């Protein structure tokens, strides 16, 4: 995410960045975050206790509120939402200290909504928010700090991947 895209979110303008078939939407949106579930589904408290890393597998849905999750292991994300999984985080703080370890990684048809909180990563290629291969992340009022070589604040890669950010600080 470039300084210009962060500035765009601060000035409440909307910008769309396209990278092949992935897109990033940055701006201020004046609506609530929504995640639609079937009538018989509900968000349950995530089974893995914080501050341990969390994997949300296909068919699972869970929510965290006011917790910290993190990883100190190379290649292990603080939150990994796999294809078919759904995660909702309210005022969550995420961290990673290993290489190639993302604060949140969403892949396939996985979905994540973050409202409030922050992500801090410390090593190379450790992105703050990462949507890949069709994954979707919606984040509002969220801070992102990356401190490693080639560690972008937000990355969408692969067909159908989306990041909707607004407002965020990086």
Précis, in short:
The chain is mainly beta and 170 residues long. The chain contains one helix and 16 strands.
Q: How does the major sheet shape up?
A: 11 strands, mixed
Average pLDDT rating: 81
Could you list the spans in which at least 5 consecutive residues all have pLDDT below 50? Answer: 1-41
Protein structure class: mainly beta
**Extended strand count:** 16
Helical fraction: under 10%
Tally the helices: 1
- How many domain modules? 1
- Rg result: 14 Å
Shape descriptor: globular
| Percentage beta strand | over 45%
Rounded to the nearest angstrom, the distance between the terminal CA atoms is 8 Å
Which sequence of SSEs, written as H and E, runs from N to C?
HEEEEEEEEEEEEEEEE
Q: Describe it for me?
A:
Residues 1-41 have low confidence and may be disordered. The protein has one helix at 3-10; strands at residues 15-19, 22-26, 44-45, 54-56, 61-65, 68-71, 79-81, 86-96, 104-107, 111-121, 129-132, 136-140, 142-146, 154-157, 162-165, 168-169. The strands form two sheets. Strands 1, 2, 3, 5, 6, 8, 10, 12, 13, 15 and 16 form an eleven-stranded mixed β-sheet that branches. A five-stranded parallel β-sheet has the order 4-7-9-11-14, with no helix packed on it. The protein has one domain (3-26, 41-169). A hairpin with a 2-residue loop joins strand 1 (15-19) and strand 2. The protein has one helix and 16 strands. 42% of the residues are buried. The longest helix is centred in the N-terminal third of the chain and has 8 residues, at 3-10. The chain has 170 residues and is mainly beta. 5% of the residues lie in helices and 45% in strands.
